[in-house]
Amino acid sequence: MENLISIFVDSVFVGNILLAYFLGMCSFLAVSKNLQTSLGLGIAVVFVLTITTPVNWLIYRYLLAPGALAWAGLPDVDLSFLKLILFIAIIAGIVQMVEMVIDRYSQALYNALGVFLPLITVNCAVLGVSLFMVERSYTFAETVVYGVGSGIGWLLAIVSMATIKIKLRYADVPEGLQGFGINMITTGLMAMAFMLFSGITL
Amino acid sequence: MSTALVKITRTETYRTVSDALWQNNPISKQVLGICSSLAVTVQMNTAIVMALALTAVVACSNLIISLMRKMIPRNIRIIVEVAVIATLVIIADEVLKAFMYNISKQLSVFVGLIITNCIVMGRAETFAMSNPPLKSFVDGMANGIGYGSILVGVSFFRELLGSGKILGFPVVPQALYDMGYMDMGLMLLAPGAFIVIGLFVWLEHAILNR
Question: How many Cβ atoms are within 10 Å of B75's Cβ, its own excluded?
């Protein structure tokens, strides 16, 4: 249990998927202009990560990992090199399915998240979390917590960036630094603030 | 000599390359593909390997997709593109594991993340789908080099200031350390990468606008 809490805190703050591993930067920079949309995209990412990471864990554990096909009588087969192509296919498939299910059952939620869902397939954070979960050989429970935590960490980062950008509109930024330059430096300062949580040990 | 130079600068290939390096650099101008680029810039050798892997993947995926562009049905093109790119990335990953095991361990998941790198998808979608193979190949090459130039530039400063080394060789003389000089630990952490790339873009803007 303590282990799970510490994975959660680590994935939200210290090991923030965006600020410590630079994943999901493209949509982070493109969408954080508006608070409302960044909140929508953030929630959609949490949603997708919560579903795809455990599913990818199951696929990896029972189909791809070395010796995983023992149940089918093939204990010597190692298909782990296929994980890249299978993970991205599964993410794309799940995103599509989630979109259809939401469209069918909750029109309000679809209107709020609908536009962002296709964008998430190419969000590096989603694939990144699945690959990290394999690399760190998490158990199933740890994977679920890690997926949710990373999503929340990403949501936190993009929402804080959107609010900082509102303040930045009134700031007098040197000409060459405007736009991309100042965004990167602001993100750097934010990453520094998040790193302060590394003192927490559970 | 100078006429030869003029001839080179007038060719289309040269223009594609210089465009991708300067006016339309994928990272600093189009804000694409930063996802996987920053995490590997702590040391120069990982950055160089990453840049080479990405260049190979973009160039080959552009070539293959351009060869198939007349056969791909319009509405499933994204899936086809992803499948081609993912296959190439798996090949790149296996090659790195076979010939540069230590570096591939350091790059860990970031080679795999080339699949979701926006540059690769972006070039396949905007350029390779509507241009002949050779031209697409050169375009992919140029964009890979443009991406690599930023990567290697950022990693140069991070490694120099962060650990006093270049490509693993110590370059800051011991005398400086004796006088009280210290390596800047911040450069090795994530915030260092963000700040260096911000300043880098500032420098580039300042040079281009003059």
Answer: 7
Among B62, B143, B48, B29, residue whose Cα is nearest residue B96 = B48
Chain B interface includes A191 (CB < 8 A): yes
CA–CA distance, A150 with B149 (Å, rounded to integer): 30
DSSP string of B164-203, one letter each residue = SEETTEE-S-HHHHHTT----HHHHSHHHHHHHHHHHHHH
| A21:B193 CB<8 A | no
Q: C-alpha dihedral over B175, B195, B108, B51, to 10 degrees?
A: -90
CA distance A190 to A184: 10
Q: How many helices (H) and strands (E) does chain B have?
A: 10, 2
Helix pair angle (A83-105, B77-99), 10° resolution: 150
pTM for the predicted model, two decimal places: 0.83
* Size of the A and B interface in Cβ pairs below 8 Å: 123
CB B39 within 8 A of CB A22: yes
User: CB-CB: which of A85, A177, A183 is closest to B86?
Assistant: A85
Residue whose C-alpha is closest to residue B27's, from B194, B143, B157: B143
pLDDT digits (tens, 9 = 90+) for B58-92: 999 999 999 998 888 887 887 888 889 999 999 99
Cβ-Cβ contacts under 8 Å, A181 against chain B: 198-199, 201-202, 205
Residues of B168-205 as b/e, b for ≥16 C-beta within 10 angstroms? eeeeeeeeeeeeeeeeeebbbbbbbbbbbbbbbbbebb
Dist. CA B110–CA B127, nearest whole Å: 25
Q: Which residues of A touch B79 (CB under 8 A)?
A: 92
Distance, in Å, from the CA atom of B29 to the CA atom of B205, rounded to the nearest integer, reads 9
Please tell me the distance from the alpha carbon of residue B53 to that of residue B188, in angstroms, as a whole number: 23
Residues 6+ apart with CB under 8 A from B183: B161, B162, B163, B164, B172
Q: Could you tell me the CA-to-CA distances from B206 to A61, B146, B148, B154, B210 in Å, in that order?
A: 51, 18, 21, 17, 6
Q: Are B134 and B127 in contact (CB under 8 A)?
A: no
Tell me phi and psi for residue A168, to 5 degrees: -65, -25
Q: What local confidence, expressed as pLDDT, does residue B1 receive?
A: 46
Q: Alpha helix locations (H) across A60-179?
A: 83-105, 107-113, 117-121, 124-135, 140-168
| In the predicted structure, residue A21 carries a pLDDT above the cut 70 | yes
